[in-house]
Structure formats: structure tokens, C-alpha cells
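Need fresh eyes. Consider my entry:
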Amino acid sequence: MRKGKDAVLKLLRNGEPVPYRQLLKMLGVARGQERNRLDELLDNLLEAGEIVKLPGRFYALPGAAGALRGKLSMHRDGYGFVMAEDGNGDLYVPARYLRDYMNGDLVEAQVVSVRRDGKREGRVTALVQRGVTSVVGRFESVGRGGRVIPDDDRLGHDLFVPPNALGGARDGQVVQAQITTYPSKVRGLEGRITEVLGDVNDPEVEVLTVIKKFDLPHVFSPAVLAEASKEPQEVPAEATAGRVDLRERVTVTIDGETARDFDDAVSVSREGERIRLWVSIADVSHYVAEGSALDLEAYLRGTSVYFPDRCIPMLPEELSNGICSLNPQVDRLTMTTEMLFDSAGEMVESRFYPSVIKSHARLTYTIVKRIVVDADPEAIAQHRTLVPHLKVMEELALRLNKKRNLRGSIDFDLPEPQIVLDLQGETTAIVKAERNFAHRIIEEFMLAANEAVASHLEGIPVPALYRVHENPDPVKLKDLAEFVFSFGYQLTVEDDKVSPLALQKLLAEVEGKPEERLINEVLLRCMKQARYSAENLGHFGLAATSYTHFTSPIRRYPDLVVHRILRRVLSGKLAGKERGALEARLPETALHTSRRERIAMDAEREMVDLKKMQFMRDKIGEEYDGFITGVASFGLFVELVDLFVEGMVPVATLPQDYYVYLEKSHSLVGERSRVSYRIADKVRVKVAAINEARRQVEFALVGSLESRPIQRPVGGESYARIPIKGKRPKPRRR
């Protein structure tokens, strides 16, 4: 090879990717040692991040494959993913590039290579902001000092505590430690203990551990509480001036039995074949002034967080359960969306205005079901004056649901667990959370109101905050189409996109079939996560061209933002400099609130998993029926049918064989036995162990599964062989 590194970089400087064969020709590289030296040079430049490799063995300078910014999500084995803030997929980062970084860090990253299947690999190029400033975990004495074993095993480091920073902690206690030195090539993770939370098995300590681990603000400052306490708990007459008076309308709230903060109230009226709907939402914007201590705290929290035994509210109780909550038989200030629907469920008219209401009754989903579904004589007699209104609501909900289904809205009506606790906070049962038609009524009304507000703001148009759900990942879509084809189903993917109607049709076709659960699970894995955006990108799952969050301002900050925008539009005050300032601020608001929502979801999931794990502590050795919910190279994830508890069957405990992991077909296959384990397969398992550190229940398979012939890899899928005990069989030609 006549030239080296400088020559390669010069050839790539025009920004266009160059194929490998063209590099050989332009550099005058012959076969043999010269080509080997070029390959070594290219590998070194890739490792150093000076060039990137694209599909088809094209090479380019960094930037051609794209740069991104996002949160780093680490795996306990050391590798990680940068989750792009723009929602455009994740970037895989090998462990060798992550020694100086930690889970949760906000980073900038560069794409290094893109595989033919579209999956991207890269490296972190810059630290934007540390995501973790403190560590929660179990303290252990080491010499005169000690160490904290993090509750989050994704951090990848134990924290060393010097002798002068122990904070009085004793062996085995749960502590919080502030990080003083981050890991590097020459030093480990170091810190000082700032708080001793208590003993490991104390239920209150368990809750505190999750709160601290996810850095959830859970104590209101004196300034915030002072502002909240100033608000009267009754609506004064002067506050109703200029509002539409709906107090004489029959209006009700419908919520769960344990709900205490009532965001929304509904009312209906039949007008011939048409039905008019009023959705009145608590006017939180009247009480929380922009820029106030209350507002800044609500923005910081972003959302309320719900644990099995408590709620960490976005707003203090004086507001969330008091003057903002639409309690029965008292005046409340609201923002109302008034909509008129025809017999096909099409909205033909809408109005938006500040209002005052008086809820006639606080109904529960159970009561409404007893009236409209069960026709329970006792429930009907107790709420005789409300029954005609509830029947009209039922009819409207059916119309709206039918219309939504016709346009392709996708509903995953999967069962969700409900944790039952005793007075000491211990889990006594895990049952299926009830979801009945009364839930559907409120869901349809809230969806309609959110869509109406979004369409109104977009139609003006004004800057707004949208709830967006983008099209599924193109690569996963192609895999899904190939996967369902093996079952005899057709899914059309055009221009890397699929219509919601096509997915809805697929779900209808598989309903009641043996493969229904399997295809539902695989389809769910294709979906992107909904998020907030200042740009309207539509909502794929709802098949809605314009959608926002407006109906829960007590517990979601984005809804409060949308209320303020709507109020300004209605008063004619959103113009000029204020409009420009809003437009500049909304992208950051969307990023922050999306991030806070994900943190809340992770914390809620962790708390539920902890309660499930505790429930299983005394179940070791017991057998249960379950089904496979996930497959990985290291094992099977199994959910118990009756308990909604998920655990893992490690691959090392499977019957003696060599196992092939087929990623696209979501299965593990034994090369000798030809037995396959696939998502949705029914299995019988025994509780083998409780892994406290990983918050994980471990299962062992009982008996054997039905033998199934091995299918060829989907779409040319490669095999990942996992040797488990015994001699390796001879490889078969494929």
C-alpha cells in the first residue's frame, strides 16, 4: 500500500461514503500483505472513531452515519444503549467504550457502523451531564472504610467509602452515598454516605430505596407548601365571573374505588340522533401561576408517581385532593371541551371555554358496570336519576369506539396486575386488575377531548405540546412481516411503514388462535414509546393525525401546559413576543416531561417487581403454570398464569443440549433434541430461588415441552449457539 492513514482520511474528506473496493483501487492496494495492512489500518481508524463503517462495507468520516444525543442505558454485563432524545431508535455501544460512563448519563454519541439490518453501533464521544450523583445500596464494612453495593446493578461499580465518610452506617444497612469521584482508568467510584435509610426488609425502607434510586422529588419545600396553603378550599363567587355556568347540568366523575384526585367530569345530552358531550377538566392553571414555586416544583416532578400503597403527587394535597379535585356537590373551576357527535361517532362541532361545575355524584367503575352492563336492580335503584345519562354515555362510547376501530386504532387489552397489601405493607395477593366497560366509557371520552383540543390548537395554528407516537421501527416491521408469514398471515410493509389498520386487521385475524398471544407479544416489541413533542408527528397507535394530553393536569405537567396555551388562545393573548417565547420553550418542555414520565414508569415498575419478589419468598419449591414472555440467549422469561409474576429460567438449567438463539423468531432451539422454546409457549415451572440483588425470581422447568421441528431462521437469521453441558454435536449445513 503506497499511502497510509492520511491518504485514507483525504479520500473520505468530501463527505461521501466510499466502498471498500473503490478504496483498494484509489490507494493502489494489491492483494496479499498490502490488503491485510489496509484492513488493519481501517480497523484501527474505526476503533479510534476517526472513520465509520456503513452497510455494504462503505467507509466515511464521522457525521455521515449520524450523531445523536441521549440517555445512556447500561446493561449489567457492561455494554449499553444510547436512547436518542429525538425518538429515532437506540445506538448500541460496546463495553470497551463505556468504562468512564455510568447508567443514566446524558451523552453525545457517534454512529460507527450500521448493519445491513439497520441496527446501529457506535461510541460515546462526550459527556453532557452525569445522570447519577448519588448511589443507593447495601453497606458493607471493608477494613477501616467500606463499600456500597448499588441497588441498581447496571451502574457496574461498587462505591468505595473512605473511613472519614461512613456516616455511622452499619453492616447490612441500606444507605445513600453522594458520589465524590467518578470511575476512570486510574480510579474507581468513590463517595461519602449522606443518609442511612434503615434495614433491608423494612417496607418503608424499600419504598425510600426506590425513591432515592430514581431521584424522585417526594418532599415539598416550605415555599411550595406556603403557596398551596394560601388557596381557599371553596370557590369564591368572584372566581366564577366570565365562566360558562354548568352547575345545573347533570355531571359526574367516574374513577376507581381508591381514587382521591378527580381530574375529569363528564355530562351528556341526546339531540335527536346526535349526542353532545361535555368533558370538564380541573382548571389547575387558575391555581398554579406560571413561574411560581408551585409551578417550578410541578415542572421538576413532571408527573405523579403511583406505587401500590401510595402516590407521590405532582402537586400538594391542598390542590390535588382539595380545591382542584372535582369532588361531588361542591363548586369547582374547570376547562370544558364541548363536542357534538353524529350517529357514526364523527365530531361535527366543538367548543372550548372556562367553566364552573358542580359534580352530582362521585361514581366508581364498579357501580357504573353494575348499572349499564349487569343491569343490577339494587345499583339502578340507588342511582335512578343518573341511569338515563349513563345509558346515553354507553351509547356514545360504543359509537366512538367503533369509529376509532374503523380508522385503525390499535388496542392491546392485556391483563395488568394489582398488588394487594396488608396494613404492614406486605404483599398478600397479586390479582388481575379489573377493566370493564365503565373504564372504556371514560377512556373514549378522554381520547375524544384530547384529540379535539389538539386539532383545535393545530388548526389555528399556535405552538403546542403534542403527544406523539411514531411509526414502528422499519427493521422490526420487516422482521414482524416475515415472522407472521410463517404462520400464514400477510402484513404489507411499504416504504418501511405499515398502516395501523393493517396491524389491527392482523390482531383481529389471530384472535382466538393458538398463536394469538405470541403475535401480540412480538407486535408490542415493534412499537415505539409514545412521547411529548413540540412538533405534531401524529399518534400511530391511536391512528390519530393530531393528539395531545389535556385531561389530567393534576397529575401530568404537559396537560397543564396545554391548558395554559388554550386559555391564552381563548383570551386572544397568545401573540407576538409571548408566542415566540412559547415556541422556543416547548421543545425543552417536551424532552423534560418525556424523560420524567419514563423515570416514573421505571420507578413504578421496580416497586411492583419488588412487591412481587417479596410475595414469592415463601413459595420456593412450589409449581405453577406459566407462559414464556421473552427469550434471550441467556434464558427464558416466564410469567405465571395466576399470579402475574415474571421470572427467569436460566439457559444453564434447561435440559442437556446445545441451544440456538433465534432472535427474529423469538425462540431457543435445542440442536440435538430439536425442542424449541418460544414466546407464548405454555410451560410448567417450579420456583427455584429468589435473587434479591437483581429483584428477580428464578424458575426451573418442570417436565418437558412438546417437541417441535426447528424452523429455519427467519429472513436469513444467524444462529447464536449456547453450549450447555455434554459434547458439542457436529454442525449441520443450513
Remarks:
- Residues 222-466+546-603 form one domain.
